[in-house]
């Protein structure tokens, strides 16, 4: 009996406890990144909630420009034609109201941009519907690169995700054989590089993934060549847990690895941060064409300097051979 008393005396949690716990979960719980989704992967710095808000604002702005305003159905219009029937039969009215709520919740899930749980810290995934993620993100970066106008504070990188599959080597090979075709299958061809990042995943090998994917690109067209300096296409591989996110993007180097904070910086700011980097324009201003007189006088100076060095060296070294 002594052992049974603590169990019997244990207090039961109130009925509203689990409902309150569900309410405290972060926004987007229950909707997680999974294979088959398309969207935009966004990295931030310790403020995911604000990152989601900035993403909705930025994507909404450019989404309306490229694809027109998003259309929403009006619940009042759907209910206006059945108001009289609802008054006549309360049961039928309650049933219709419940069906309408389900339909409304379904429409909300099918919005153009919808945040889902990415499965990694400081990473936000925005699922897209009815748009091409790579075209939208490229348009955003192209505009920001041209105007140098900063539009976000916490968003760092914004990567379009054109396809997802399970993060296992066999699944990735089978998926990418068709996924890469629009860019690399003959007669299409181009130079490329592969960038790889894994989060919360330890069973995938970076070297193996890059080797296998590069082999698939080469098999689609032998004229596809690797270029690590300034490739036409960059194959982005982002692995989070057991999901592999893929995309093929343009202007990866020009747009600073699709970093929204870096792409708006001017060439002067880049030079201050990287003093060793000299732009082509700066090189052109430093190198000036020499006139014939300057050239001849420079040659005389070099000859006299060389003769002096040889004489000085011969004095100090008797075994010098010319």
TrEMBL record:
Residues in THUMP domain copies: 143-250
SUPFAM superfamilies: THUMP domain-like (SSF143437)
A Pfam family assignment: THUMP
Coiled coil: none
Any one biological process term the GO annotation gives: tRNA modification
Compositionally biased tracts (Basic and acidic residues): 297-308
Region described as Disordered: spans on this chain: 1-30, 267-322
InterPro entries: THUMP_dom, THUMPD1-like
Bias type Basic residues, positions: 9-28
Polar residues biased stretches: 272-285
An example molecular function term from Gene Ontology annotations: RNA binding
Keywords on record: RNA-binding
Subunit structure of this chain's protein: Interacts with NAT10. Binds tRNA.
Task performed by this protein: Functions as a tRNA-binding adapter to mediate NAT10-dependent tRNA acetylation modifying cytidine to N4-acetylcytidine (ac4C).
Family: Belongs to the THUMPD1 family.
Identification of the protein by name: THUMP domain-containing protein 1
Organism encoding this protein: Cairina moschata
């Amino acid at each position: 009996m002594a052992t049974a008393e603590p169990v019997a005396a244990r207090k039961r949690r109130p009925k509203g406890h689990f409902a309150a716990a569900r309410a405290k979960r972060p926004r987007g719980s229950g909707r997680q990144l999974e294979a088959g989704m398309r969207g935009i992967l966004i990295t931030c710095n310790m403020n995911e909630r604000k990152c989601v808000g900035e993403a909705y604002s930025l994507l909404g702005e450019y989404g309306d420009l490229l694809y027109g305003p998003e259309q929403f159905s009006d619940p009042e219009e759907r209910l206006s034609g059945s108001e009289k029937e609802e008054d006549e039969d309360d049961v039928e009215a309650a049933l219709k109201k419940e069906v309408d709520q389900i339909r409304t919740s379904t429409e909300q899930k099918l919005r153009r941009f919808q945040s889902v749980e990415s499965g990694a810290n400081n990473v936000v995934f925005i699922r897209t519907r009815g748009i091409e993620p790579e075209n939208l993100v490229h348009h955003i970066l192209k505009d920001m690169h041209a105007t140098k106008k900063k539009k976000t504070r916490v968003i760092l990188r914004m990567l379009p995700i054109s396809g997802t599959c399970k993060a296992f080597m066999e699944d990735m090979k089978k998926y990418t054989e068709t996924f890469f075709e629009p860019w690399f299958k003959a007669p299409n061809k181009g130079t490329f590089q592969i960038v790889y990042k894994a989060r919360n995943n330890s069973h995938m090998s970076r070297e193996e993934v890059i080797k296998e994917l590069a082999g698939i690109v080469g098999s689609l067209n032998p004229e596809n060549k690797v270029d690590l300096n300034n490739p036409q296409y960059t194959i982005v591989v982002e692995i989070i847990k057991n999901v592999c996110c893929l995309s093929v993007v343009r202007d990866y180097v020009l747009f600073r690895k699709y970093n929204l904070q870096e792409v708006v910086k001017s060439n002067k700011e880049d030079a201050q941060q990287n003093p060793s980097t000299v732009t082509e324009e700066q090189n052109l201003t430093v190198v000036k064409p020499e006139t014939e007189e300057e050239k001849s006088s420079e040659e005389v100076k070099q000859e006299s300097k060389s003769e002096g060095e040889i004489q000085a060296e011969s004095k100090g070294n008797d075994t010098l051979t010319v």
